[in-house]
Design goal:
mainly beta; three-stranded antiparallel sheet; ASF1-like_sf; 2 helices; acetyltransferase activator activity
Amino acid sequence: MSIVNILSIDILNNPAPFLSPYEFEITFECLESLENDLEWKLTYVGSATSTLHDQELDSLLVGPIPIGINKFLFQADPPTAELIPKKDILGVTVILLTCAYDSREFVRVGYYVNNELPGVLLREDGTPDVEKWSVEDVQRNILAEKPRVTRFNIRWDGEGGEEMPPVQDDVEEDEEIYSMEEQLDDFLEETEYNEEAIEIDLEEEESSEFNNS
């Protein structure tokens, strides 16, 4: 059983310019006292063909954690555009919001992100006008209503027991995002885990304000 459960994630600035910071309001429940902080990370998948362009946008330690329902704001810088192949800036990609306890990741939330140009910067056939557009023109839209959530069964304070590899939840295939679906799968498979993954749903619940210290 997980001691920490995400109740809701609200993306506050969506849609937004590509170069705008990411802002997440995260509500979670803690069932028992924890000795250590929770570590949250946001990763941007920069290319569907190589993990070399992935960028860790920010990380945040949250704690001490009181028992009960808690809320905090997680802000992260946008990706560095110069580290992404220009051909991969536009179109659909993935961001991964993860949380770990004592260096053991126990939840991962993946969102598809659509980066697009306004119509005035497109040719008549709908393709980008390479001579006119720059990264400052790109708008991002996070598909917040369709997160892909995987929870890993880890050992918490004082717990023992056998650990198992993760199991991913199923999602419907979509031709437009199929290549990024494979990229998300590759990201999960290439990372070593010893936890059992369990599907969870994000639900809206009333919560009390949590001040990070």
